[in-house]
Amino acid sequence: MSLETRYSQYDTLAFLYSGLESSKVSLMLLEKFILQDIPNESHILDLCCGTGELVQLLLEKGYQVTGLDGSEEMLHYARENAPDAEFILDDSRFFKLPPIFHAVVSANNSLSYVTSLEELISVFHNVYAALQSNGWFAFDLNQEERYETDEPTSTSDFTDDYAMIDCFSYDPEEKIAKSNLVMFRLINGEWQRSNLTFIQKAYFTAEVQSALEKVGFTEISIYDAGRNLGVPQMEGRTVYFCRKL
Ligand SMILES: C[S@@+](CC[C@H](N)C(=O)[O-])C[C@H]1O[C@@H](n2cnc3c(N)ncnc32)[C@H](O)[C@@H]1O
């Protein structure tokens, strides 16, 4: 798959990323809602697995785990964090895997980087095709309130070997959040600059539910993580659980 069609934006940020704390929360939700319902040693696909912390936590529980991500650099760290897992470099919108998984999970708002409903439906089709009958699909998405801001904001972060400025804006008409990031990194004594744009989409819960139904998912449960599940770390996020027929 070429770089034009694979989402690789996270390559430049991979050295900074750690999903460990959020992965512990994801594991807690998966244990509560789906893990008790699938056989021990089930095969789980972590879609958009990032640096592999959730993959490792699931491996430690005895599951067989495959991680898939569009960023080669994120997978580089994932292979270090979860050396016993299998990893696939691919894009959630285009991957094709046989129906071998008991569950597919996509944690920490990863699917919001899929910025059109049409493409989100492609992701759902690919997940459906990769699941065994009765297999589970679990994911979470930011609600609009996580993005809303009256005017563009900028934040910065720096250490001795990197400096980063992030200019964030949200378009409520299009429901599109944009982060324009300028990153300077000290590599082999030279400062290197990268300009990056991260775009995320705030989906309505109803459109996500109807897309899942259209693809064939059933037993769809939807929770507001902060209000219904009492998970303060996931305030403003919706969690979806559903099954293949
Ligand atoms: C916010 S990180 C979350 C990583 C991980 N799921 C976690 O819980 O820590 C989003 C991840 O999604 C991946 N990603 C975004 N869009 C993707 C796509 N279309 N295909 C594959 N990976 C994608 C990025 O490369 C990144 O690793």
Any overview of this molecule?
With 245 residues, the protein is α/β, with parallel strands linked by helices. It has two domains: 176 residues, 3-Layer(aba) Sandwich (Rossmann fold), CATH 3.40.50; 53 residues, Single Sheet (N-terminal domain of TfIIb), CATH 2.20.25. Helices cover 23% and strands 36% of the residues. It has five helices and eleven strands. Strands 3-2-1-4-5-11-10 form a seven-stranded mixed β-sheet, with helices on both faces. Strand 4, helix 4 and strand 5 form a beta-alpha-beta unit. Helix 1 crosses helix 2 and helix 4 packs across helix 5. The mean pLDDT is 96. The structure holds S-adenosylmethionine. S-adenosylmethionine (SAM) binds next to helix 1.
Taking Cα atoms only, what radius of gyration do you get, to the nearest Å? 18 Å
Rough outline: globular
Number of helices: 5
Biggest beta sheet summary = 7 strands, mixed
Compounds present?
A: S-adenosylmethionine
Cross-sheet strand order for the largest sheet: 3-2-1-4-5-11-10
The average pLDDT value, as a whole number, equals 96
SS class: alpha/beta
The helix content is 10-25%
Q: Helices and strands, in N-to-C order? A: HEHEHEEHEEEEEHEE
CATH topology heading of the largest domain = Rossmann fold
Give me a quick take on this structure:
Helices cover 23% and strands 36% of the residues. By secondary structure, it is of the alpha/beta class.
